[in-house]
Each structure stands twice: as C-alpha cells, then as structure tokens.
Specification:
By secondary structure, the protein is mainly beta. Helix content is 2%, strand content 13%. It folds into two domains: 1-145, Ribonuclease Inhibitor (Leucine-rich repeat, LRR (right-handed beta-alpha superhelix)); 151-220. The protein contains one helix and nine strands; from the N terminus they run E-E-E-E-E-E-E-H-E-E. The longest helix is centred in the last third of the chain and has 5 residues, at 180-184. It comes from Catharus ustulatus.
C-alpha cells in the first residue's frame, strides 16, 4: 500500500492487512499511528517520513520482519524505545526531527547497517551504539555533538563521510584504532581535537581531499 497523501488518520482496520509487506505513508498529516500496526507481522518496509508524528506505539516493536524504516521530518524528540526491538532492521532514517536522546537499547539492533540522524538535537551518543558492529553508514551532521563514545573506534566498518560537524572530541584511547573510513573523511570535519596526555604525536592518515578547513589539533 503506498502513496496515500494528506491523510490525517490511519484507520485501525490497517491491522487486518496481515500479509502486507510494504506500507508507504510519507507526506501525509499523520500525528499518531494506531497500535494495530503491530499486527502486520509480514511488514518489511515502512515509510512515515514527512508527517507530524511525536511518538510511535509500543506495538511497533512486534514488527520483527521490518528491515527498512523511514521517519525523517517528523516531530520526534527521542528515538522511540520500541524501535530497538526491531531485530531485523538494517536501515533507519530518523533525520530532521527533534531527537536529543538515543536509548542505550539501540544495541539490540544488531543487523543495523545504516543509521541517519542528521538535523536533530543530539549532544552525545550512548556507548551502546559502539556495539552495532554491522553499522557502516552513520550520518550525524547538523546536531550539537561535542564528543564521541570512548569505544567509537571499534566500529571498524564505519564510513564517516557526509558528517559536517563543527567540533568532534576524539577520546585519546581510540584515536589509533579509529576506522580508516573515519580518517578518509576527516575533510568533512572542521575541527578534530585529538586528546592525548603524552607521546611524540599521533599518526593520522591523510586524505587527498582534505581541505585547509580540516584542522587536526594536538590537544593538552
């Protein structure tokens, strides 16, 4: 079912479509999703972008076949905890919301490969995000991040491209273990502060596309 526009209310009867695999509800005026959506046990793709959602029903956690979820441009202030029960999820776009909190239970999304969180209000990330070992795309641009988790370097498959951040503080203990993908894209970061207490310096790989805007600052 797809491309239904300017709908303000999703009928509870949606729960009768038990064999539905794809549901496209983007660009409507939805403010809530009925709990009955949790009965769509065969649903694999759900798009809810460009609506007015401020929350999601707990029953969404029952969508165990869902692998692609689009929530961009809504009014979410936190990443809903029920989403962290979606064990088959590989793609999650929650960009352009008002999210300031990522729950520690995000660690349960073990199959997640792409997480888009641009244009939100994040100031930090939970350490548990570092347990998402299949994560290869993480977009965090246009947030208020001031630091990265201490174990961030363990995300060895992570491509840091398309993250336009004004200041990232990298914990001293994992600078050398950061994924090569991170350093290949440091030209998108205006200032990277490398925390260290001692030592002759840090061997940070260069990237041919780095610009003068990129500043690798040895710290105190």
């Amino acid at each position: 079912v797809g491309n239904v526009y300017r709908m303000e209310l999703l009928p509870q009867d949606i729960g009768h479509l038990r064999n539905l695999t794809c549901l496209y509800l983007d660009s409507n005026n939805l403010k809530e999703i009925p709990a009955e959506i949790g009965t769509l046990s065969h649903l694999e793709r759900l798009t809810l972008s460009n609506n007015s959602l401020s929350s999601l029903p707990a029953e969404m956690g029952a969508l165990q076949r869902l692998h692609s979820l689009h929530l961009a441009n809504n009014s979410l202030t936190e990443l809903p905890v029920p989403l962290c029960q979606l064990r088959s999820l590989t793609f999650l776009d929650a960009s352009d919301n008002k999210i300031d909190t990522i729950p520690s239970s995000i660690r349960h999304l073990e199959k997640l490969e792409t997480l888009l969180l641009l244009f939100n209000s994040l100031e930090s990330l939970p350490e548990d995000i570092c347990l998402l070992r299949n994560l290869h795309t993480l977009w965090l641009g246009n947030n208020h991040l001031r630091s990265l988790p201490a174990a961030f370097g363990e995300l060895v498959n992570l491509d840091w491209g398309f993250n336009y951040s004004t200041c990232i503080h990298v914990p001293q203990d994992n600078v050398q273990t950061m994924s090569p993908f991170f350093w290949q894209h440091t030209y998108t970061v205006r200032a990277v502060t490398l925390w260290r207490q001692h030592g002759p310096g840090l061997d940070v790989p260069a990237h041919p596309e780095q610009t003068p805007e990129t500043q690798l600052l040895g710290a105190w």
